[in-house]
Design brief:
Length: 293
């Protein structure tokens, strides 16, 4: 079943394109921000008790950043794109499932990446087999993301999860899929599935920014850091700034490689707020200051 933003075919009013809006996609911008969601813009799941505060703050921040004509903001997440939009509650571009699907600001459906399309039947087949063979133990949960299958096992200690995952992984590999582990989840992905670095490169092609900021906290976000450095080296952008967000389970390599390290999603959102202010007042200087807050 496809996710919709607010019931079948009805996006929430706030996510509807304004009447007579001239939708000029991808004007060239000065600064493109590609930000991960869980652990970066909001605390990682499970939701913290003050989640409502984070969500309200995030919505205000997204409004502020997307209103800026020289700035573009894209959410690059492992979540399904429509699920991410519900959390963001803002009409952003979203690269979902690590870049395997994309959602335009006012679109009601996410589109699978062209590389993922030929594999949709195989993903459906593996999902059906897992159900028919009852391969998923009760402590785990399979999320069918259509372009990949995610097994959520955050409630199990790693060693117990590993033993329970082995049959699922064997079935995935026998069907030609790759097995990729994340924080509390393991995904079965078709070969050549896009990663977050692909999503960043695609967004840079579209927006042609001079400066690129990528922000993340997890192992999968390193692909964004690598893409940003590569795009700067090859001259597609003038400069890249990798921002890591520290928190429970943050990837040490992310923290080591980042130029800017921020203490949690609150600090990340306020750093972006400062960046927007600096651009609005003719700056961008904030990007020139190496910071480890
Ligand atoms: O790329 P991100 O924005 O950091 O998203 C990563 C995953 O986030 C969500 O998983 C997290 O919450 C799950 C419970 O809702 C939990 O089981 C898992 O351990 C957490 O990582 C999302 O459900 C996944 O699809 C994303 O890949």
């Amino acid at each position: 079943m496809r996710h919709t933003a607010a019931g079948p075919g009805r996006p929430a009013d706030r996510l509807r394109a304004p009447d007579r809006a001239v939708l000029a996609p991808f004007p060239a911008v000065d600064t493109l921000i590609c930000a991960d969601l869980d652990g970066t813009l909001v605390p990682p799941s499970p939701p913290t008790p003050d989640m409502a505060r984070h969500t309200a703050d995030l919505r205000e921040l997204c409004g502020r950043l997307t209103a800026h004509p020289r700035l573009a903001l894209v959410c690059v997440t492992g979540r399904r794109a429509l699920n991410a939009r519900e959390i963001l509650d803002s009409p952003l571009w979203v690269a979902g499932v690590h870049g395997a699907e994309s959602l335009a600001p006012y679109a009601q459906e996410a589109l699978p990446h062209p590389r993922s399309v030929p594999h949709l039947p195989a993903v459906r087949r593996v999902a059906r087999l897992i159900r028919e063979l009852a391969l998923c133990p009760p402590e785990m949960h399979i999320e069918d993301k259509e372009v990949v299958l995610a097994v959520h096992h955050a409630r199990l200690p790693a060693d117990r999860a590993a033993s329970r995952l082995s049959r699922l992984a064997r079935l995935g590999r026998a069907s030609g899929m790759e097995v990729v582990a994340g924080r509390g989840w393991t995904e079965l992905r078709p070969p050549g599935s896009p990663h977050k670095g692909d999503a960043v490169a695609e967004m840079v092609r579209r927006w042609r920014p001079r400066r690129l900021v990528v922000a993340g906290d997890d192992h999968g976000d390193l692909a964004m850091f690598e893409a940003a450095d590569r795009l700067a080296e090859e001259g597609s952008i003038e400069r890249a700034v990798c921002v890591a967000v520290r928190g429970p389970g943050a990837d040490p390599e992310c923290l080591r490689r980042a130029r800017v390290v921020l203490e949690g999603p609150d600090a990340c959102r306020s750093w972006f707020r400062g960046l927007a202010h600096s651009l609005a007042t003719g700056g961008g200087a904030r990007l020139d200051v190496p910071a480890r807050h």
